[in-house]
Specification:
transport, mainly alpha, two-stranded antiparallel ribbon, extended
């Protein structure tokens, strides 16, 4: 009777407030559930926070009430509000002797805190004590907290006790101990590296739950090191066989499937161990085949187990019988009306892509999935087509992918589709004309989502052509590109990157074959500059292209007719706020006033693929410097030898050494200057111990220099100096910065499917009654689908390697470019990475640093230019200028940029930029007297900028200002 009364009281309390909880708590939960808006919910929670703050602060709160308050704090925290004022009370509750209160406290702590919280240190002692408890429920509660709260620093405090719990008599404790060790391995592998053998022992545990928990850490270990666990193949196979034969208790069944999650984990492990290992795979054939036969496909968990079997079969050494069974299951998946099963079938088919005979059996099903309204299924089908692309079906697949890319609005997936189209077109393009047309479509519809490297490759392809000696084929390729761009250029809105390519091609080859006149090409380019007036990059490309067209006309000796719209464009840009556009406009106007010979040297025809020879030592200026010195010019004084400044290189070496020995960098705010009083001889700066900043910790230097500063202050108020040693900079280079270490990660392309070994022959699979085609009853297949399937799956059934070498016509040919090693290494990032590890071809517009030439020219550069400007001068100077080894000063800029942009794309000065900036101090000193402002006369301006123009524009120079335009 007493027990019945107790049960009655508990039921009564449950009807009022929920088994010991107050009615106030029940009203809180009810009001939160009935709130109609987020604002109303926030108002209820804020009132509850005020109530809890007041209640928790009261003295002598009963434990039952405190437990309720902690649970109410959990509601507050889960709804997104701050309940940190009650964290300490949850920590205190973990110390309680009552099991109910202790479990409540641990539950709250694991939900409130993270492993880096300051209160974790208060829980470690409690966890250590509870792990030694005689009550296994307390031990399990402490192990749950260990998996959530113990960080890398506190692992050694509890690790010995958890290892002891692996032999606990209760299976629940052993299971949670294995889970805790797995957590430690993921958090800090080195801390449990000596305990990995315990996982092997627990694999033989009598309890299936402990064994199943051990499979999770073993899967991580096998993934890291497969060879060390090859001896466990037979053990895993035996366990899987026992599970599949229903030898486990009924409690482990799920939807009438025997321990399906244990089977899935075992199949994952066996797939890793049998990959490429024939001997290990032979042990797995029987048990995997039994699972194919016994597995029930009527439930979702059964289909999941079948899918995992297909993944295992595709990974291990191939077996004809298992591949046939996998093909039957894939056929059932693809026939299903459930989109989830179709998705699994397409994904499983992608894993067997190395077996074309299996894929070709389901070609019509793939076509149906490609036209399915489910967007997720359609995207998965495109992934399958991407994997099965080869030279015979690349045109059909890329066209379908481009059509799908046009129809979607998701910018992220559109970018992915565009990159795949570009990759497939580069690897399997049947012809260069098709490649150009495909790139035009991708640029036109994907916009600026396309990688800038694709633009570089497209321009390089057009410039190089087929890479052979057939000039007619190259001319035909460029002519077709010009015609296609002239048709596209009239579209209302085109992407900026695509317009840059269009302008470059029209400027280089617009009137090369004589089919289109220079006036027509320049008119189109003026229309582009006017239509995209807000895009300075496009306008700069258009102006440069017009300059090229006019240069080629002048060099050919044809009469030049400048269009009125072109003249108005020049006048408009001459007053532009952009200095770059201003300079291009002035250059174009000045170039139209020159004769044919200098124009031909400045703007050579079709020189975008030629190499650039750079004289790093500027030896061609030696004669000019010598002559200037003889006339009384002051010699150049190196920076470290100038008066008043000490050796900068020594200071930098000390600074680098300091950075290497300290994690922080200590620098002075600025270099102090010596103050020399009147009547006192100046003291060399290096001899002053008070004013020379040494790269040491600033607080240490200040402690030593305080007496010297006070003594120097006696000289008078005028001698008092503000000491800035150790003060952190607010502008310029930060004072406390450590050099960032850049790591290059090489992206690897996953290889799906397995490789057929040499010598292993498989016969054609027998005709199955469950094939996809035989079940399409009363369904008429349209001729369009049959034609599409023949295009996608037709041709050779042999697998082809994804390499550019698999096609007859290469899209990009590295053999044509004979750039130096330095140029190739400086611009490695501009070349699209190929799948095979060969050195990528240098970029078409590579302006890197070639090998140093040691030739010395004693001829005055100004005299050379005079020969260009005045044909009446001797022919010898004109010939000297026209040689391919004309002086170049790109190396002046390369050193400066490479130190600031290490690893990136170096932005070299372009030929039409005509930068007057000089980084060589010797040139600054000797040419200082020759520099003056430009006059209104264009010829005078050219004469005064002759040396820079001569050094910046050579007959082998590529497209002017290309990198400046493409990279901004």
């Amino acid at each position: 009777m007493e027990q019945l009364k107790t049960i009655g009281r508990e039921l009564a309390m449950g009807s009022q407030g929920g088994f010991g909880q107050s009615k106030e708590f029940l009203d809180l939960v009810k009001s939160i559930g009935e709130s109609r808006s987020k604002a109303e919910e926030d108002r209820i929670v804020l009132n509850e926070i005020d109530t809890l703050k007041r209640r928790i602060a009261e003295p002598d709160i009963p434990k039952r009430k405190m437990k309720e308050y902690i649970i109410r704090l959990l509601y507050v925290e889960m709804l997104g509000h701050d309940a940190s004022f009650g964290y300490i009370h949850a920590v205190k509750m973990t110390h309680d002797d009552s099991l109910v209160l202790k479990r409540t406290g641990y539950l709250a702590v694991t939900l409130f805190l993270n492993e880096d919280h300051d209160l974790i240190i208060l829980i470690v002692n409690t966890i250590q004590k509870d792990l030694k408890s005689d009550n296994f429920l307390v031990v399990c509660t402490a192990l749950n907290a260990v998996c959530k709260l113990i960080n890398e620093e506190t692992i050694p405090a509890v690790l010995p006790q958890i290892v002891d719990l692996l032999a606990h008599p209760k299976e629940a404790v052993r299971k949670k101990a294995v889970m805790a060790l797995h957590r430690f391995y993921r958090k800090s592998p080195s801390s449990v590296s000596h305990l990995l053998s315990n996982f092997r022992k627990r694999l033989c545990d009598n309890d299936p739950g402990v064994m199943g928990a051990t499979l999770c850490p073993l899967f991580d270990l096998v993934t890291t090191d497969v060879s060390s666990y090859k001896d466990l193949v037979i053990s895993f196979v035996n366990i899987l066989k026992q599970v599949a034969e229903r030898r486990l208790p009924k409690a482990y069944d799920y939807h009438n499937m025997p321990a399906p999650f244990i089977q899935i984990k075992l199949l994952k492990i066996l797939a890793l161990l049998g990959n490429g290992d024939k001997q290990a795979s032979e042990h797995m054939y029987t048990v995997v085949g039994d699972i194919f036969k016994k597995c029930d496909s009527a439930s979702n968990i059964g289909n999941a187990l079948l899918y995992e079997c297909i993944c295992c079969v595709s990974s291990i050494y191939p077996s004809p019988k298992l591949l046939e069974a996998a093909a039957d299951v894939i056929a059932r998946f693809l026939k299903s009306d459930n989109h989830n099963l179709k998705y699994m079938g397409i994904d499983a088919l992608g894993r067997l892509i190395s077996k074309p005979e299996i894929v070709e059996q389901h070609q019509l099903a793939v076509i149906d999935c490609l036209e399915d309204p489910d967007d997720t299924l359609k995207r998965k089908t495109f992934e399958l087509l991407y994997k099965m692309t080869k030279s015979s079906n690349v045109e059909v697949i890329v066209d379908r992918m481009i059509d799908y890319m046009i129809s979607i609005n998701d910018s992220h997936y559109k970018t992915e589709i565009a990159s795949r189209c570009v990759e497939l077109a580069e690897q399997f393009a049947p012809s260069n004309q098709w490649f150009i047309q495909t790139m035009n479509k991708v640029f036109e519809h994907a916009g600026d989502l396309v990688n800038i490297k694709v633009a570089h490759n497209l321009m390089r392809l057009i410039a190089e052509g087929f890479g052979e000696d057939d000039e007619s084929a190259d001319s035909q390729l460029r002519s077709s590109a010009v015609e296609s761009y002239l048709r596209i250029i009239g579209e209302p809105k085109l992407p900026s990157l695509f317009l840059q390519v269009v302008c470059w091609v029209l400027g280089e080859y617009g009137n090369a074959d004589g089919k289109f006149s220079a006036s027509y090409i320049t008119g189109k380019l003026c229309d582009v500059a006017e239509a995209y007036s807000n895009d300075e990059t496009v306008k700069a490309y258009a102006v440069t292209a017009i300059m090229k067209v006019y240069s080629f006309e002048i060099a050919a000796g044809r009469k030049l007719d400048i269009l009125p719209e072109c003249q108005s464009l020049i006048e408009e840009l001459s007053t532009s706020h952009s200095t770059d556009l201003q300079q291009r406009a002035y250059e174009l106007q000045a170039l139209t006033e020159l004769d044919g010979h200098p124009v031909e040297c400045i703007m050579p025809l079709d020189a975008s693929c030629e190499d650039i020879e750079v004289d790093r030592n500027l030896s061609f200026l030696d004669g000019y410097v010598k002559e200037s010195l003889e006339k009384g010019a002051e010699p150049y004084i190196p920076e470290n030898e100038r008066s008043g400044i000490f050796d900068i290189s020594n200071f930098r070496s000390q600074e680098q050494h300091e950075v290497s020995t300290h994690s922080l960098r200590f620098e002075a705010y600025e270099l102090p200057k010596t103050s020399v009083p009147v009547g006192i001889s100046p003291v060399p700066l290096t001899s002053s111990s008070e004013l020379v900043p040494v790269p040491e910790p600033s607080y240490y230097r200040e402690a030593q220099q305080m007496p010297s500063v006070s003594s120097s202050s006696d000289a008078g108020p005028s001698e008092i100096k503000l000491r800035l040693d150790g003060v952190q900079k607010k502008w310029g280079k930060p004072s406390y910065s450590s050099p960032a270490t850049s790591t290059n990660s090489a992206s690897q392309k996953p290889v799906n499917g397995v490789t057929q070994a040499e010598g292993m022959t498989t016969g054609n699979p027998r005709t199955r009654e469950i094939s996809y085609e035989s079940n399409r009853t009363q369904v008429e297949i349209s001729p369009e689908k049959q034609k599409l399937a023949a295009s996608l799956f037709g041709g050779s059934s042999k697998t082809e390697k994804r390499a550019s070498s698999s096609t007859g016509n290469k899209v990009a040919k590295a053999s044509n470019l004979t750039t130096s090693k330095a140029a190739a290494s400086a611009f490695t990032d501009t070349v699209v990475e190929k799948s095979h590890p060969v050195q990528p071809p240098p970029d078409l517009l590579d302006l890197g640093e070639p090998s140093v030439t040691g030739s010395t020219q004693a001829v005055d550069p100004f005299k050379q230019l005079e020969g260009l400007l005045d044909p009446s001068q001797g022919t010898s100077s004109g010939n000297a200028v026209g040689t391919s080894k004309a002086p170049d000063v790109i190396s002046l800029y390369s050193d400066m940029y490479t130190t600031e942009q290490s690893g990136g794309l170096v932005q070299s000065p372009s030929s039409d930029g005509l930068d007057s900036k000089s980084t060589s101090a010797s040139v600054n000193a000797t040419l200082h007297s020759a520099q003056s402002n430009k006059g209104p006369n264009a010829k005078d301006s050219l004469e005064k900028d002759a040396l820079v123009r001569l050094m910046g524009v050579t007959p082998s120079s590529p497209n002017p200002n290309l990198f400046k335009d493409l990279l901004g």
